[in-house]
Amino acid sequence: MSQNTTKLSSVRYFDRRWFTRAMEILPGSITWLTLLLPILLSLIYPIAVAYFIIAYDLYWTIKSFRMSGYLVRGYRRLHLAQSVDWNGRLEQLRHLEGSLQEVKGQLAAMRQQHPSLASIWSITDRKTRLQYQELQSEVERVAGLAERSDKIMDPATIYHAVVLATYNESMDILHPSVKSLTEVDFPLKQIMLVVAYEERGGPETEANAHSLVAEFGDKFAMAIAVKHPDGMVGEVRGKGGNISFAGRVLTAEVLKRGIDPERVVVTTFDSDHRAAKNYFSYLSYLYAIDTKRVQRSYQPVPMFYNNIWDVPAPMRVIATGNSFWLLMETMRPHRLRNFAAHAQSLKALIATDYWSVTSIVEDGHQYWRTYFVFDGDHEVVPVFTPVYQDAVLAGTYLKTFQVQFLQLRRWAWGVSDFPFVVRNSLFNKQIPWSNKAVQIGRLFESHFSWATAPLILTFVGWLPLYLNRGFAYQSLAHNLPIITSRILTLASVSIVITVLLSLISLPPKPERYRKARFIGMVAQWALLPVVTICFGALAALNSQTRLMFGKYLEFYVTEKATKK
């Protein structure tokens, strides 16, 4: 066992069951206390609740404006990244000195066209001014790379391994996902495909996995199907055990071929994930120039758009909202965490003993495992390109609603990381407490807000008026709903921005739908308050309450269906 892996396993000696249980109880208890306290205070001290809700609404209004700004900036970055020739940039990395001279020459030629140039603002033509700015930025970028060319990895030596996890999904789901890998703008002979399938999926799952390898295998550098045995000791049923088992097989194959694990970037995909065409070229560029590439995770933008036209309206709101929330998070890299499709070097995965086999939220948990193994020297780098995924769609509407709730509850089970993070923070003396405290605070706040914010914003403003008759005679009591309503109306500007971007970013409408379908795409946002409570706050509250009482959540594979 490596020294880094020992850091994680040795924490078990520090673990005491009472301490772990206390940390499991803490998030849920504070959440419930926060939700119940306004009811109690409305009875005994209603004015405090009134001023609290006004301040809280103002806070969320300001936050909504800030998040809208992140969303617009994130969408712009996503759009601009699609116009970049990433393969051209990879070629630049192989000839940095020549590339630098070339862009300097282009800049000099433009200056000759404007001999009296004092600043870029003296160029009256906007298009020319933008071209000049782009050239200046390009010179600075290439010059910066040339200064540290000895630390840049040759892109031609980088391999990408895709670990595609499947349980019992049909070929209608799997085939388009694998086929999309053959359509990327990156050399397929530098891509390895690992179809990680579960033994408990049955004979059909096994046949599907081997059929995919047989059909597409000769297109890649390597393609294998790896069966994860059922009932392995020390594992919970979940994706982590499956992809970790596949990761070990991948490592053996890579070493057998004499490839350095640091030169292999591993991306985990679910069965419905489809990478944008520039994903691997873009990721290769970021990985090649990163001097701390082993200590990094790389996070593309999940967009639940594969079947967005087919799913019911509440699911469309959830899918778009989740896509946009994750896009906003890319503009705050200090808060960015691994989610669904994410990438790390194979060397880092070996150091962390691959993914967790004891957590059903192995993606977010992998951030914390890597964070502690590398003594806090770990960041998630945003990759501003989409990985398209399915929105929730089951066989019937009622089943779809049920599956959606279960999926969001599983995501909210990330609160179970809290004891792990606190325990390892106490154990790891290499990370400054200023850093660890911020990390713990962000983890707690995200799950706390998830469970409480929609409920507080919707209901607490009315509590003093209806629960305390004495307070009902005060002018503040009657003005409170009006004040909060006006504040939240102001915050609704952010919803307008969300609606506009959702329409702009929609994939093309399938021919089977009429143009009137667009009306539903706008009207669906009237469901936002109901959706955030029923599928957001209640799902998070369910997970936190289960953790409080030790009713540990089991992995639930999200049912996937296609509409033909």
Give a brief outline of the structure.
It is built from 23 helices and 8 strands. With 564 residues, it is an alpha/beta fold.
Structure overview:
- There is one protein chain.
- α3 (17-44) packs across α16, α4 packs parallel to α20 and α16 (417-427) runs antiparallel to α17 (433-459).
- Among the domains are: 85-151, no CATH class; 155-407, Spore Coat Polysaccharide Biosynthesis Protein SpsA, Chain A, CATH 3.90.550.
- The model has no long low-confidence stretch (mean pLDDT 91).
- Helix content is 59%, strand content 9%.
- The longest helix has 37 residues, at 46-82.
- With 564 residues, it is an alpha/beta fold.
- It contains 23 helices and eight strands.
Quaternary status = single chain
- Given as residue ranges, the uncertain stretches (5+ residues, pLDDT < 50) are none
CATH architectural arrangement of the domain at 155-407: Alpha-Beta Complex
Shape: globular
Number of strands: 8
Helix/strand structural class: alpha/beta
| Count of DSSP-assigned helices | 23
Share of residues in strands: 5-15%
Distance between the termini: 50 Å
Task: Set down the secondary structure blueprint.
Elements: H1 3-9, H2 11-14, H3 17-44, H4 46-82, H5 86-94, H6 96-113, H7 126-147, E1 159-166, H8 171-181, E2 191-198, H9 203-216, E3 222-228, H10 239-256, E4 264-269, E5 274-275, H11 279-289, E6 296-303, H12 313-329, E7 342-345, H13 346-351, H14 362-373, E8 379-388, H15 397-412, H16 417-427, H17 433-459, H18 463-467, H19 469-472, H20 475-491, H21 493-505, H22 517-523, H23 528-548
Parallel strand pairs: 1-2, 1-4, 2-3, 6-8
Antiparallel strand pairs: 4-7, 5-8, 6-7
